[in-house]
Amino acid sequence: MSLDQKFEKIFKKVDELKPQFIDVLAKAIEIPAVSSDESLRPMVVKKAHFLADQLKSLGFSDIQLRELGTQPPPVNDPKLQLPPVVLARYGNDPAKKTVLVYGHYDVQPAAKEDGWDSEPFTLVVDEEKQLLKGRGSTDDTGPLTGWLHVVRSHQEAGIEFPVNLITCFEGMEESGSLGLDDLIAVEADKYFKDVDTVCISDNYWLGTKKPVLTYGLRGCNYYQVTINGPHADLHSGVFGGIIAEPMIDLVQVMGTLVDSQGKIKIEGIEEMVAPVTEKEHEIYEKIDFSVEELNAASGSNTSLYKKKEDILMHRWRFPSLSIHGVEGAFAGQGAKTVIPAKVVGKFSIRTVPDIDSEKLTKIVVEHCEREFAKLNSPNTCKAELIHDGNYWVSDPFNASFTAAAKATKVVYGVEPDLTREGGSIPITLSFEEKLKTNVMLLPMGRGDDGAHSINEKLDISNFVNGIKIMSAYLHYYAESPEK
Ligand SMILES: C[C@H](N)C(=O)N[C@@H](Cc1c[nH]cn1)C(=O)O
Ligand SMILES: [Zn+2]
Ligand SMILES: [Zn+2]
């Protein structure tokens, strides 16, 4: 049977099985697997078991829920267990290539009060707009479950699976992939011994129309600054003006990190960024993107840059510093007149070549300490790293990228753009280094999916076509003469 004939049968099955695939996604999304919320850790574990059950019913073998030990500090409960990594195999034929597919089953926090139109952990199938709405639909439960549907479609179409598949599904990606590095090191010559390539479906197209393949990610160093003052929250009428307020110190320290144009004000970071080459300018010129698409995705007119090249460089190629929030501060409606006793400011820096993570942390911590010292406050200040994750940039010209480009052409009828990604997938570089193989990012969703935001969605066409691309990719990769 020719590849085209195989694809016809598989794709027909994907279309037929669509309602069942959506049903699996709905069941997965129902589990609020928020890795950053310690109280929801049992839910993250529950989702791992749900996936293991799915893998079992599909006939995967050697299914393991690998424990990673306790979560390292800073953490409220020092006994908190990390969620397990779900390892499984489909096929173990030495004559076939082996593809490791990585995905994460944890999600970002979400609450209806944040502005969602519906309950975030109830999948909404919007027939009118042809989209699937719910936390994790695009990041990353939809793409992750896509790999399971690839297997099911092959089974029901009666087509032999072209490769050996290994899954590595983790539950801590949104919180720094803690513990996974060590597991990969331990299993590099055991469970992962025969891996020829790694495919990750956990990012997004640049815009809304053109499919892409991705060869780079920024890293992410996440920090917290804790200012400690009085023993308890106090009445601002009774104590305001006569004690040093932690929140006043914190906003001043945080105010020295970045300006409103996005320029990082911490000395020593810019110097670590690799200079932009002439070749890079040429690459960026050819990419399909506009400020209008950015505005549509952000739902605003607040872009700091108007030119395509500036936007892309600042998204992919330069570091950025974002301020995320303050733990312990009043954040509700109304007018509570309180002086918070202890506040913890959270910010992260997206890193790029050649920023050294340890050096960056030293610079950041010293900067915060220096700025706090200037305040002459009797309060205490501690700045620390919560987690870091490496940036990754690879060469997109190998058998895996070629197979994915062919698969994209078969499904969408166009050559994909080659992009980098402003977000981070902390474990990517570890796969490349520890398994001594290449990694390819094959995104399923679109740039306006609202990952990490309210009303996160995945277009039904992206879900269905994504499963078809994943299927065709495995066949093209299996047929390729190189690894
Ligand atoms: C791109 C990926 N889907 C993603 O959202 N990654 C997260 C990873 C992260 C790193 N620190 C905290 N979370 C991201 O880029 O924010
Ligand atoms: Zn995410
Ligand atoms: Zn993700």
Automatic annotation (TrEMBL):
<dbReference type="Pfam" id="PF07687">
    <property type="entry name" value="M20_dimer"/>
</dbReference>
<keyword id="KW-0378">Hydrolase</keyword>
<feature type="active site">
    <location>
        <position position="106"/>
    </location>
</feature>
<dbReference type="GO" id="GO:0070573">
    <property type="term" value="F:metallodipeptidase activity"/>
</dbReference>
<dbReference type="GO" id="GO:0006751">
    <property type="term" value="P:glutathione catabolic process"/>
</dbReference>
<feature type="binding site">
    <location>
        <position position="452"/>
    </location>
    <ligand>
        <name>Mn(2+) 1</name>
    </ligand>
</feature>
<feature type="binding site">
    <location>
        <position position="139"/>
    </location>
    <ligand>
        <name>Mn(2+) 2</name>
    </ligand>
</feature>
<feature type="binding site">
    <location>
        <position position="104"/>
    </location>
    <ligand>
        <name>Mn(2+) 2</name>
    </ligand>
</feature>
<comment type="similarity">
    <text>Belongs to the peptidase M20A family.</text>
</comment>
<dbReference type="GO" id="GO:0046872">
    <property type="term" value="F:metal ion binding"/>
</dbReference>
<feature type="binding site">
    <location>
        <position position="337"/>
    </location>
    <ligand>
        <name>substrate</name>
    </ligand>
</feature>
<feature type="binding site" description="in other chain">
    <location>
        <position position="452"/>
    </location>
    <ligand>
        <name>substrate</name>
    </ligand>
</feature>
<feature type="binding site" description="in other chain">
    <location>
        <position position="424"/>
    </location>
    <ligand>
        <name>substrate</name>
    </ligand>
</feature>
<dbReference type="GO" id="GO:0005737">
    <property type="term" value="C:cytoplasm"/>
</dbReference>
<keyword id="KW-0224">Dipeptidase</keyword>
<dbReference type="GO" id="GO:0006508">
    <property type="term" value="P:proteolysis"/>
</dbReference>
<feature type="binding site" description="in other chain">
    <location>
        <position position="350"/>
    </location>
    <ligand>
        <name>substrate</name>
    </ligand>
</feature>
<dbReference type="Pfam" id="PF01546">
    <property type="entry name" value="Peptidase_M20"/>
</dbReference>
<feature type="binding site">
    <location>
        <position position="235"/>
    </location>
    <ligand>
        <name>substrate</name>
    </ligand>
</feature>
<keyword id="KW-0464">Manganese</keyword>
<dbReference type="InterPro" id="IPR017153">
    <property type="entry name" value="CNDP/DUG1"/>
</dbReference>
<feature type="active site" description="Proton acceptor">
    <location>
        <position position="173"/>
    </location>
</feature>
<feature type="binding site">
    <location>
        <position position="202"/>
    </location>
    <ligand>
        <name>Mn(2+) 2</name>
    </ligand>
</feature>
<feature type="site" description="Important for catalytic activity">
    <location>
        <position position="235"/>
    </location>
</feature>
<dbReference type="InterPro" id="IPR051458">
    <property type="entry name" value="Cyt/Met_Dipeptidase"/>
</dbReference>
<feature type="domain" description="Peptidase M20 dimerisation">
    <location>
        <begin position="216"/>
        <end position="373"/>
    </location>
</feature>
<keyword id="KW-0645">Protease</keyword>
<keyword id="KW-0482">Metalloprotease</keyword>
<protein>
    <recommendedName>
        <fullName>Cys-Gly metallodipeptidase DUG1</fullName>
    </recommendedName>
</protein>
<dbReference type="InterPro" id="IPR011650">
    <property type="entry name" value="Peptidase_M20_dimer"/>
</dbReference>
<dbReference type="GO" id="GO:0008242">
    <property type="term" value="F:omega peptidase activity"/>
</dbReference>
<feature type="binding site">
    <location>
        <position position="139"/>
    </location>
    <ligand>
        <name>Mn(2+) 1</name>
    </ligand>
</feature>
<dbReference type="GO" id="GO:0042802">
    <property type="term" value="F:identical protein binding"/>
</dbReference>
<keyword id="KW-0597">Phosphoprotein</keyword>
<keyword id="KW-0479">Metal-binding</keyword>
<dbReference type="InterPro" id="IPR002933">
    <property type="entry name" value="Peptidase_M20"/>
</dbReference>
<feature type="binding site" description="in other chain">
    <location>
        <position position="202"/>
    </location>
    <ligand>
        <name>substrate</name>
    </ligand>
</feature>
<feature type="binding site">
    <location>
        <position position="174"/>
    </location>
    <ligand>
        <name>Mn(2+) 1</name>
    </ligand>
</feature>
